[in-house]
Structure formats: C-alpha cells, structure tokens
Amino acid sequence: MSAVTPFMQSSWLRPKYLLFAAIGIMLAYVIPHDESFLVHSKDPMWQHYEPFKWWLLPHGIAGACALLLGPMQFSDRLRQRFRRLHRVVGRIYVAGVFVAAPLGVYIQHFEEGMGDPRSFSIAAAVDAALWMITTGIALIFILSGKVQEHRQWMTRSFAVTIVFLEVRVIGGVTGFDSLDVHANETMVWACLAFSILSADLVLQSQELRRSHPVVGRHAPASPERMLESPIGQSDRVCLQSRRGVSKHEVIPNGSLTTWNHSDPRSTRSVTLSRPVLRGRSGSDCHPPSIGA
Fold first, then answer.
1. Does an H or E element contain 260, and which?
2. Do residues 164 and 128 lie in contact, with contact meaning Cβ atoms separated by under 8 Å?
3. For 164-183, how does the pLDDT look when each residue is reduced to its tens digit (9 = 90+)?
4. pLDDT tens per residue across span 210-241
5. β-strands 277-278, 284-285: how paired?
6. How would you class 127 by CB atoms within 10 Å of its CB: exposed for 0-12, middle for 13-18, buried for 19 or more?
C-alpha cells in the first residue's frame, strides 16, 4: 500500500502570484510610455490637461492608491498576520475607488467638450459604475460578516481596477493609441467586458482547486516502517478478522524499524497500515489489512 499525503503547490507558481507579476510588468510598461509627462513640465500633454489639471490630481492619486494597494488585500499571510493593516488598506482602497471613479467621469466630460464623442463619455461612466458597484457590494458583504462573498466581489472590483493598465498596454503594443479616439473607446469596452469575465474565471478556478486538492504519492511504505516506535516500548493493538477482534502485543526487536508481532494462537503475519481508531472496549485499535 502506498502512503498518500496532500501537499501545497509551490507558492511562486500559484495563479495569484503570476497575475501580480503580470500587473508589475504592465506597470513597468505604462509608467514610462504613458505617464512620463508627469516628470516633464514642458511636455505638450500638460496643455491638453490644463482645463482640468486640478481635477486630474486627486483622480490620479486616488486611482494609484487603489491600483497599488489592491494586490496587498489578496495576500493570505498579510491578512492572517496583520488584520488591522488589512482593514486599513481595505478602507484606503474603497476610498480611492469612490474618489477616482466619479472624478474620471467628470474629467471625461471636459474631454467631451474638447472634441471627444459622447459615446466615450458613456464608456467612462459605465467603467466608473462597474468599479463602484463591485467595490460597494464587497464592502456590504464584509460589513455583514460574509467573508467569502466579500473576497469574490473584491476580485471583481480589482479586475475593473486594472482596466486602466490593460487599455494602455494594448494601445501601446498594438499601436491603437496612435489612432483616433474611437479605437481607444473600443479598447475600453473590450477590457471592461473581459474584466468581469476574467474575474469569474479566476473564482471558478479557485473553486475547482478546492474541490480537487492536489496530492502527492510517496513510495510504498514497508510493513516495518509502518510500525516505527522507540526501542523499549511495547503496545497492544486490536486486530479484526472474520473470527472477531483479538489483542496482539507489539514488541520491539532491537531496531527502530523492525517489529515482531507475537500471537500465541496464530502464525499468520499481519501488516498494520491504517490510522489509530477507538475500539469497542475503549482501547486504541489499528484496523489492519491481514494477509494469510
């Protein structure tokens, strides 16, 4: 008989960490490609942002807080060891969402006055609404003490959060960001649709892993190894056969791994390979597999 024991996947290969690595790569691409104007005061983009630059500042800070602090909320170790920090970061995330989302819609209203189509403003409003609704539902669940549902809706909320990165990465890699505003609008709609789908795919994969745990098989254990015990100690076990339950004394034979099974009434060999169970008489019994 082989011993089967569960084991955990390598922590660095978990899908959660692979996703966070992808987010880090997207950030490393977006910051120099799309946000470099922040450190160049003479960049032409400042002229474009001049009418609403003071609205852009809180929008950017709040959105950055949600984007950068969000991954911390999915850390099991952080949540278990630093509960208070987890709650504080969660409140900052929620505040960031409810500040950045409506300001984004307001800024897009300025963009519409500067020539952007109304349909782009609608896309921005839908994005903001999804962001606030998913975050609000997650907040309601945690206030009600429903942790599992809270985690599920936080996953959906953060999926909407990274739409900001996805649109810019896709636009920069494909060159769509150099096309007209309708190409950007199409990317926003596509990323919004994918965000909810991807979040539910992640949640479903987690459920599948819980229902089908990964196990590892070790080499078959020998009968001697199955009965290891310190030298000098003896024990009594109950062996169940067709004739009933009989008591046998297990006596160590001068080795840490070799045992003799004394049975004055029978010369059959036995192999004990199952967990300790409580017998009828109240003593510990090991249901064995008995071979002739």
1. strand 259-262
2. no
3. 889 989 988 888 878 888 88
4. 776 554 444 444 444 444 444 444 445 444 44
5. antiparallel
6. buried
pTM here is: 0.65
- Quick one: how far is CA 128 from the chain centroid? 24
Place of tokens 């809706």: 153
Domains of the chain, residue spans: 4-211, 223-290
Nearest alpha carbon to residue 100 among 69, 58, 135, 129:
58
Please report the pLDDT score of residue 100 as a whole number: 95
Q: What are phi and psi of 236, to 5 degrees?
A: -115, 135
Strand, helix or coil for residue 263 = coil
Rounded Cα–Cα distance for residues 193 and 275 (Å): 51
State the Cα–Cα distance between residues 74 and 63, nearest whole angstrom: 18
